[in-house]
Design brief:
The complex is a heterotrimer of chains A (343), B (398) and C (447).
Chain A: H1 2-32, H2 39-57, E1 60-69, E2 75-81, H3 82-87, H4 89-97, H5 99-121, H6 131-153, H7 164-167, E3 169-171, H8 172-176, E4 184-186, H9 187-209, H10 211-221, H11 223-228, H12 233-255, H13 265-280, H14 285-302, H15 305-310, H16 314-329
Antiparallel strand pairs in A: 1-2, 3-4
Helix pairs in contact in A: 1-9, 1-12, 1-13, 1-14, 2-5, 2-6, 2-12, 2-13, 5-12, 9-10, 9-12, 10-12, 13-14, 13-16, 14-16
Chain B: H1 6-25, H2 43-66, H3 73-90, H4 95-117, H5 122-141, H6 145-148, E1 177-178, E2 181-182, E3 186-191, E4 194-199, H7 200-221, H8 223-233, H9 235-240, H10 246-270, H11 281-294, H12 301-315, H13 321-327, H14 333-343, H15 351-365, H16 369-387
Antiparallel strand pairs in B: 1-2, 3-4
Helix pairs in contact in B: 1-7, 2-7, 2-8, 2-10, 2-11, 2-12, 3-4, 3-5, 3-10, 4-5, 4-10, 7-10, 11-12, 11-16
Chain C: H1 8-21, E1 26-29, E2 43-50, H2 57-74, E3 100-107, H3 112-124, E4 130-133, H4 137-150, E5 153-156, E6 173-175, H5 180-195, E7 200-206, H6 209-224, E8 228-235, H7 243-246, E9 256-260, H8 264-275, E10 282-283, E11 286-287, E12 289-291, H9 297-303, E13 311-314, H10 323-336, H11 342-361, H12 366-373, E14 376-378, E15 386-388, E16 395-396, E17 399-404, E18 415-421, H13 423-426
Parallel strand pairs in C: 2-3, 2-4, 4-5, 5-6, 7-8, 7-9, 9-12
Antiparallel strand pairs in C: 10-11, 13-17, 14-15, 15-16, 17-18
Classes of the chains: A mainly alpha (343), B mainly alpha (398), C alpha/beta (447).
């Protein structure tokens, strides 16, 4: 029982990341009709916003300490972050400790700007081109972005710890009345799950309850008619692209304590997120979210020891098996519409 | 002749001539000059270009004609390599049985995967093929290690049974061969400071690739090819006329799978080791890039794309800072350092960045791929010539 | 040092030679020379084949730095590094047998295909005599067999799988780095003395050849110490989120977690294990412990604070106090401003060992080099007295047990040497069950 609850939690947590990325992809696809292979790179750049913030906060001045020697026998350079210098040791250290949540402040504007620039500068010219061209150009962009990040930050993963207060694990089992040490779960992963619910809820509420969102939805359904009504739908779609980039970026920022950022993390998620989107049904926002959580949960159950003993190697392929089964039984994914991306 | 029109026949002859002369054409720079860095006329790279040309030409039969974008073709390549290697291990290091089995296994796998995947179209088809290929890759890396030897890759061993030619070996594994002619056999010709390498393996790959090119040409020009083009332009309309397109699609899929299997078998024959990386989705992506970059749906495009990417991967990645410093050593020190700093991010370990940028440029400005670039260039020069006034040879006609 | 000088004069020269020559083409087959790529000019070329793209690019960059330093020292530039502490004194900084050493580099991408393509271009186009480098066992095994076929020498870089000098060993290939068996042999007694004899361990193992060999040797050595294995769970190589594998650990009754992961896998699984509270839990009345059998500096850097107190094994560490290590750290530190990693050390040492063997053999012929290296005993290269065993081309030397530094003084101060397990403890017979099945075969000079 507790094992199942544990894997359920894992599934929800994995699913949160899948759902957030798939949500952004679907927003772009649904509004602009563009298959964005650079979306994984957006996730990665979000994560590197956290790294950048960490670096910024850790900007230090160095003093030579003649009492200590470095490995070459020269006086050791001791560096103190400006933050600690300005705010005092305790406050400074606390700010540094919270660098991941603080980087949301950096990530949102950076990602929105990046998204808008990308749409206006590149994607705009590809609306009328074949899907294959869109895939190729965004794939090229993804390579370029990831190589730039690699040249700046290196290929090694960079540790970005969660704030100390949120870094530990909670013994949920004991809270729910099970024996101690049966359901132990990291606090940050619970936060990630809640965070993703807030973002997903926010996006849906924005589309559902604001005039802006209503126009966008109308545009998604019938772009031409909305355009004929004299509404500048293009500008709104550009903003939606920025929003989608921001969602991916936020997913990346908050993921950094779980998965130390490295330059290829976007590519690692890219294939998976496309599988999620397709299983959910191209262009369907609820489909993307549902498929994200579904695949996350099934993947978690697939990697349980009991299941692995039964079918060796199942955790290696379960995502793909599900994708195949879903696509063969439901031609357009879980909630896909007819005629989307079928030509 | 050969069932081709005159134009096609000339075209084929040119391709054949280029293939035969490649060891010379690709080695234009003298051995000791700085530009020798850019020579591509060494056996391994030429073999690879020929093999990937086969792979891309085969992929183009599916994608270029029908528009169905498969993201799983690397799986057939991998299956081909593994089958060929098992033949080398069990039967003989003569490459012919291995290559035959590779083609068959590529076809069998394509039939199975195609039968399922072709139930869907568009991106759903792409994801289905991707899913099958990723499953093959993941399993080859881990659970199927007894068959694939996992991470280390499958290769001939001293302990292999090799029923047909085990007796001839002692102490080391003999090279792969065709009836005794080793694939690694190279005749070097020293001429005007250039060393041309005529390699047996390359000519095997090259001739097979010309043959496959011819076959693809025939398919493109056949009624069957016409039917596939009809699928691309409007599958629904075809269905409404009461025509079942599935058998045609499946045939195209299997043919391109067999091309991939052949390419995989040849890869194993030239370099007897097969690792699972060959089946990863990035490898499938690579052949997509080759085809689109060169020009999907054209005959020569995929070949150009294959050559372009392989050249890049193997030549640019070897230009390190020392080589750069060597190039710019004529300049004063500060300028040398500056130039090295500017070029550094794009060369050597930065070759991926350059490749990504070039992709984007080609896709943005040449939607039809390199072939379109070539055509535009031709048109441009032709127009300019016309602007210059009628050429002497044309004058009498006017 | 630079192999190809692109100068105007050079171009003119070649041009005029070519024009004046107009000699008849000379045709020669590969049989014309005594061995593959027999050096004819004033230089001899090495090929350094390291990952420059992909997840191990940083490790590759480290290796490349070490190679360049070694070439400098062999050519008599710089301060000579470990040449002064090396027990063999035949290398005098005048290059190799009167020829200057040049090198070419290539990108393995940590993929067998790309690594072989790169190595082949080095052999066929750049005429290298020796290839070194690598950051994964798959690549090392693949390139080693290629070098065997082509008839040149392979000096393995960082490769830790038993197979490299076990079932995939080759006469033309040599490994200085230690292997999974030695990790287990070194860690077994140390872990038992640190955490007691009565322990239950749970293993997460990367699901590919290296992971399996590592897991098998850990299991064998820990059970020898009286520990009990709860289970060994295989994790996909591509996994980045290990939560579903980590979640059941605490409630499984195990009190030690052994992570047979490398690189990004290890950074993520360790970070996530610590988040699951495994560093400060009490299970079975004992403190829960995490062990990472193979630790590298870059992985420690990637794991950040999570590595503190975690034990593992290393081939070498820059904090060792022997003369060879000190000389190398000084030399490398002055050149690049950072202390060298174990990957850098093994690559540097491999290059020196090859150069030394050529000089002692007085020949570039791979078969002479093989003869010079087989059964060779040396010292002063940072690992203490070392033997290149003839039977499997594996180096035998002390193995370090390291722990993550609890209070690092700077960003390089990541690992402490907890104990040095002497070579006798990690020695094994060539036909040991983890290594049997291979055959070195004959040395192949190519021609």
């Amino acid at each position: 029982m507790d094992a199942i609850i544990l894997q359920m939690l894992n599934g929800l947590d994995k699913g949160s990341a899948y759902a957030l990325i798939a949500l952004g992809l679907t927003l772009i696809f649904g509004t602009l009709g563009v298959v964005n292979f650079a979306h994984g790179a957006m996730f990665m750049i979000g994560a590197f916003c956290a790294v950048t913030m960490q670096r910024l906060l850790h900007l230090s001045f160095t003093v030579l300490d003649p009492t200590k020697k470095d490995f070459l026998g020269n006086p050791m350079k001791v560096s103190t972050p400006y933050i600690e210098h300005w705010f005092g040791k305790a406050t400074g250290a606390a700010i540094l400790d919270w660098s991941v949540p603080i980087s949301i402040l950096l990530a949102v504007p950076v990602m929105v700007i990046l998204g808008v620039v990308m749409e206006r500068g590149l994607i705009k010219h590809f609306y009328k081109r074949a899907h294959a061209d869109q895939i190729l150009v965004t794939f090229g962009l993804a390579i370029v972005l990831q190589e730039i990040v690699k040249q700046v930050f290196g290929a090694n993963p960079i540790p970005t710890p969660a704030p100390h207060a949120l870094a530990g694990a909670l013994d949920l089992g004991a809270m729910l009345g099970f024996a101690a040490n049966t359901i132990v779960y990291p606090a940050w992963r619970l936060i990630y799950f809640l965070f993703s619910l807030v973002i997903i809820g926010g996006v849906f509420a924005f589309l559902q309850f604001t005039t802006f969102g209503m126009v966008v939805r109308a545009g998604m359904a019938d772009r031409e008619t909305v355009g004929l009504l004299g509404i500048n739908i293009d500008r709104r779609f550009t903003i939606m692209f920025g929003l989608a980039a921001a969602v991916a970026g936020l997913a990346g920022v908050m993921y950094t304590p779980i998965n130390s950022p490295n330059y290829h993390m976007g590519m690692d998620f890219l294939v998976l997120s496309f599988v999620v989107v397709v299983v959910g049904g191209m262009g369907s926002l609820p489909g993307a979210v549902a498929a994200g959580f579904l695949l996350g949960i099934l993947e978690s159950f697939g990697s349980m020891n009991a299941v692995k003993d039964l079918i060796p190697g199942i955790d290696q392929i379960i995502i793909y098996v599900i994708a195949i089964v879903v696509l063969l039984t439901r031609p357009r994914g879980l909630m896909g519409r007819r005629g989307v991306m079928e030509d | 002749m050969l069932g081709l029109g005159k134009r096609d026949l000339i075209f084929l002859a040119v391709v054949l001539a280029l293939t035969l002369a490649a060891p010379v054409l690709l080695n234009p720079f003298a051995e000791n000059s700085g530009l020798a860095q850019f020579n591509a006329g060494y056996p391994d790279l030429m073999q690879r270009i020929a093999i990937f040309a086969i792979f891309a030409v085969g992929f183009n039969i599916l994608f270029g004609l029908t528009g169905y974008l498969s993201f799983g073709h690397a799986a057939f390549l991998g299956v081909g390599s593994y089958s060929a290697l098992w033949m080398f291990k069990l039967l003989s290091l003569n490459i012919i049985p291995g290559i035959i089995l590779a083609v068959i296994m590529g076809g069998v796998f394509a039939l199975a995967i195609g039968y399922v995947s072709l139930r869907r179209s568009g991106i759903y088809f792409s994801i289905l093929t991707l899913a099958f290929a990723q499953m093959s890759y993941n399993l080859a890396y881990s659970v199927l290690t007894p068959i694939t030897n996992g991470e280390s890759g499958l290769q001939p061993d001293l302990g292999d049974p090799r029923i047909l030619d085990a007796a001839s070996s002692s102490g080391s594994v003999p090279p792969t061969n065709i009836f005794g002619l080793a694939m690694s056999e190279t005749w070097k010709v020293d001429f005007l400071g250039r060393v041309f390498q005529f390699n047996a393996g390359y000519y095997v790959c090259g001739l097979i690739s010309v043959l496959m090119f011819y076959l693809a040409l025939r398919i493109f020009r056949s009624p069957f090819g016409m039917m596939l083009r009809a699928v691309k332009s409007n599958q629904n309309r075809l269905n409404y006329t009461g025509l079942n397109t599935r058998p045609y699609m499946l045939t195209a899929f299997v043919i391109s799978g067999m091309y991939a299997g052949l390419a995989g078998g040849l890869m194993a024959a030239m370099d007897p080791l097969a690792g699972p990386d060959r089946m990863q989705w990035t490898a499938s992506g690579e052949v997509v890039l080759m085809t689109i970059l060169g020009g999907a749906g054209t005959m020569l495009g995929p070949v150009l794309g294959a050559g372009f990417i392989k050249y890049f991967e193997n030549i640019f990645s070897k230009i390190n800072d020392h080589v750069l410093q060597g190039w710019f050593s004529v300049f004063p020190h500060w300028l040398q350092d500056l130039l090295v700093t500017i070029f550094h991010p794009f060369m050597g370990k930065g070759w991926n960045l350059t490749l990504g940028l070039l992709f984007m440029l080609v896709v943005i400005f040449l939607p039809g791929g390199l072939i379109e670039g070539g055509n535009r260039l031709m048109r441009l020069t032709r127009r300019r010539r016309r602007d210059d006034g009628p050429r002497p040879s044309e004058a009498p006609a006017e | 040092m630079i192999k190809r000088d692109f100068t105007r004069r050079g171009l003119l020269k070649t041009g005029s030679v070519a024009a004046a020559g107009l000699a008849l083409p000379t045709i020669f087959t590969s049989r014309a020379s005594a061995f593959t790529n027999e050096p004819k000019g004033s230089t001899v070329t090495f090929g350094f084949n390291v990952p420059q793209s992909g997840p191990y690019a940083d490790e590759g960059a480290d290796e490349l730095k070490a190679f360049q330093l070694a070439v400098k020292h062999i050519n008599g530039e710089g301060d000579g590094g470990m040449l002064s502490t090396f027990s063999s004194k035949v290398l005098d900084g005048t290059g190799l047998l009167g020829k200057k050493v040049a090198f070419v580099t290539g990108d393995t991408q940590t993929k067998t295909d790309a690594a072989r393509a790169s190595a082949k271009s080095m052999i066929e186009k750049d005429n290298v005599l020796m290839i070194s480098g690598g950051s994964s066992s798959g690549v090392a095994v693949a390139v080693q067999s290629l070098c065997q076929e082509a008839g040149i020498i392979f000096m393995a870089g960082l490769t830790h799988s038993n197979d490299t000098t076990g079932k995939d060993k080759k006469r033309n290939g040599f490994r200085h780095f230690f292997d999974a068996y030695m990790s287990g042999a070194a860690l077994g007694p140390v872990l038992a003395s640190m955490y007691g004899k009565d322990r239950k361990f749970y293993m997460l193992t990367a699901d590919y050849t290296w992971g399996w060999t590592q897991a098998a040797s850990m299991k064998s050595f820990m059970e020898k110490e009286g520990w009990q294995m709860v289970t060994d769970v295989r994790t996909p190589l591509a996994a980045t989120d290990f939560s579903s594998y980590l979640a059941p650990v605490i409630s499984s009754g195990a009190d030690v977690l052994i992570l047979n992961h490398y690189g990004g896998n290890m950074v993520n699984s360790l970070t996530q294990a610590v988040q699951f509270g495994m560093k400060d839990k009490q299970v079975n009345g004992k403190t829960f412990e995490i062990v990472v059998p193979l630790i590298s500096e870059l992985m420690a850097k990637g794991a950040g604070k999570n590595i503190a107190g975690i034990p593992g094994s290393s081939n070498w560490n820059w904090k060792l106090q022997d003369a060879g290590t000190k000389a190398f750290v000084q030399s490398y530190g002055k050149e690049y401003g950072v202390p060298p990693s174990q990957a850098a050390q093994t690559c540097y040492v491999q290059t020196l060992l090859y150069a030394d063997a050529v000089t002692r053999a007085k020949s570039f012929n791979p078969c002479s080099v093989v003869e010079a290296l087989e059964g060779y005993k040396f010292d002063g290269l940072g690992n203490g007295p070392t033997l290149y065993r003839a039977a499997d081309h594996q180096c035998f030397k002390d193995v370090l047990v390291v722990t993550g530094n609890e209070k690092p003084e700077n960003e390089y101060d990541l690992l402490n040497v907890a104990q040095i397990t002497p070579v006798e403890k990690v020695m094994y017979e060539p036909d040991n069950e983890f290594f049997k099945g291979g055959d070195l075969g004959q040395c192949n000079p190519g021609a």
